[in-house]
Amino acid sequence: MVLFRVELPTGPILVCNTHLQTARPMLMRGGVRSWLNGSWQHFVRKNTILRQTEAEILSQVVADSQGELPVLMLGDFNMPTTSGIFREYWSQWTVAFDQCGFGYGYTAPCFGVPGWPNGLPWVRIDHILTDRHWRPTRSVTGSTNGSDHRLVFAELEILPTAVASPAQSNSNVAEFPDS
Predict the structure, then answer these.
(1) What is the domain range of residue 38?
(2) 49 belongs to a structural domain
């Protein structure tokens, strides 16, 4: 996770980019034998706890840093919006694609899955989330451009109520001076 304070002409915002743990390694661990004897359940439970903890920490760091600043959270969440973990930690956020995208918006996987055609993703696990200070006006899924995921793009409108006063500050966020 990377959290930036960005100065816009309308005032400061926070931008959080994340790449959360995937469930894939734990599902693959142990091979066919673990699926036949039931030991795969241990791996899945372990991974679920890890992913839940990671989501909880991310959610808390953003909440502690936000104050009244507008926040964008984006990246590879490695889970669809229907995931229990996603709903638990980000249901209060607006998912840009859900708000104004068209179609399924699948982003992954784009290649490297045995027995599955390249370039034909089946799940949307990459997201752009906005808080109450934003209104998504457009959201699309693009090409892979060399990644194993398709890119996500959104046009956003910052709402007038979100314009921060110069006195608004947040001591929990690192500020980077212009060079």
Answers:
(1) 2-162
(2) yes
